[in-house]
Amino acid sequence: QKEVEQDPGPLSVPEGAIVSLNCTYSNSAFQYFMWYRQYSRKGPELLMYTYSSGNKEDGRFTAQVDKSSKYISLFIRDSQPSDSATYLCAMSAEASGTYKYIFGTGTRLKVLA
Amino acid sequence: NAGVTQTPKFQVLKTGQSMTLQCAQDMNHEYMSWYRQDPGMGLRLIHYSVGAGITDQGEVPNGYNVSRSTTEDFPLRLLSAAPSQTSVYFCASSFRDSSGYTFGSGTRLTVV
After folding, report:
1. How much is the average pLDDT of A71-94?
2. Which residues are within 8 A (CB) of A14 and not within 5 positions of it... i.e. 6 or more apart?
3. Nearest partner of B66 among B37, B43, B45, judged by Cα
């Protein structure tokens, strides 16, 4: 079993829809949770960064962390064609004095105009 | 523009050749890492550095070397290229090891 599981998609939605992207994880030591957006043939770009449980909102994006269920989500409101990309979740826990990141494999999102 | 710069963007190597992938950042970040990205495997950590003069191995270090002589630069050396090293390589940096990364634009490497 992978430490972080993420549905690869693709997920196709019409423009304006609310998108829900999710990751599950198995390591209860994870403390920091991130979402990255990666356009085709580009490097990942940090979208959201949260510590421990709770919600965080930034414009059309909301990140949720439920540590009791080991489940994190990214919601995109009023989705746009420009949101079409691969979304990677990542989480980190301290190991041997430093923080190690584990990335999900990414969910490919297509927003149709 | 501030950020992480990787060179080259594309490279084709023959099996057994060696090369160095360059990475430089101008944000004065202490923490730098190299990842490879393969279909269905996600991003896997090769090597990382918590500051100049300090490096350590990640999840998939075999066949790669790194050094960190300055805060800005973190080159990745392929010692003897193998087809299994065909991948997209990303360099990333962060202010501290628990903060989010800034990634470079990647190097697409093909080993034939």
Report:
1. 95
2. A111, A112
3. B45
pLDDT tens column, B8-21: 999 999 999 999 99
- Cα(A27)–Cα(B51) distance, rounded to whole angstroms? 27
B5 → chain A, closest CA residue: A43
Which chain A residue lies closest to B89 (C-alpha atoms)?
A: A43
In this complex, the residue of A4, A43, A101 whose CB is nearest that of residue B90 is A43
For residue A10, the model assigns a pLDDT of 94
Tokens of A76: 């995109």
Q: What residue has token string 């010692």?
A: B79
**Residue B105 falls in which region: left (phi positive, over 0), alpha (psi -120 to 50) or beta:** alpha
Q: What pLDDT, on the 0 to 100 scale, is given for residue A112?
A: 97
CB contact under 8 A, A88 and B43: yes
